[in-house]
Design goal:
By secondary structure, the protein is mainly α. It contains 4 helices and 2 strands, in the order E-E-H-H-H-H. The chain has one domain.
């Protein structure tokens, strides 16, 4: 009979399936959560996920507005809308004073903010990217850049973990950290 093993403790698994606790990537959240998948970036709070989806939609819209064919199509649609509105004003009369629009002539109101400058690539961050003279910047600050880099680095290492090159790189990282770790730990042997 072998020794008793504690099966109820939350010790890290040796099979490589332990994902551990993570910090939500969305700016402003900061929740610590237990990841269920290797590529899970956000906590699963419905409000947080809703805000992430809203940010992603705003980022897609920003990318779309940069394309010249999308801008041309939008200009054509706006021209047609103005023509239809002018025709409708000619055919129908409004009982309200001329300075107020009729209810049916009002356009749809937008729930999203209109961003005139490109904003940060970190999910949930709507700050303008900082100016850079060398290359186009993607983040508003070093904290946003470091947060996204940390997540991408973790995902890259997870994918490379089962490859021969990934195992070699991890072994090199561990060997490089070993002297610093030994210098930090107190010596276990007492002078005798």
């Amino acid at each position: 009979m072998g020794q008793f093993q504690h099966t109820l403790c939350s010790c890290p698994s040796t099979s490589g399936r332990c994902l551990g606790r993570r910090i939500c990537l969305r700016r402003g959240c900061g929740r610590v959560y237990k990841a269920r998948r290797w590529n899970q970036r956000y906590c699963q709070d419905p409000k947080c996920l809703k805000l992430v989806r809203r940010w992603q939609a705003a980022k897609r819209q920003e990318e779309r507005r940069r394309r010249p064919e999308a801008r041309a199509a939008h200009a054509v649609a706006e021209r047609q809308r103005r023509v239809r509105r002018a025709e409708r004003r000619k055919t129908t009369s409004c009982e309200l004073p001329p300075d107020q629009d009729c209810e049916h002539e009002r356009g749809a109101w937008s729930r999203s903010k209109n961003f005139l400058v490109p904003f940060c690539d970190r999910p949930g961050c709507y700050e303008a990217v900082r100016r850079s003279c060398r290359c186009p910047a993607h983040y508003c600050s070093d904290t946003c850049r470091q947060a996204v880099r940390r997540v991408r680095d973790r995902e890259r290492k997870w994918l490379a973990r089962k490859t021969q090159a990934g195992r070699f790189k991890r072994r090199c990282e561990y060997q490089a950290r070993r002297p610093a770790r030994r210098a930090r730990s107190p010596s276990t042997s007492a002078p005798g």
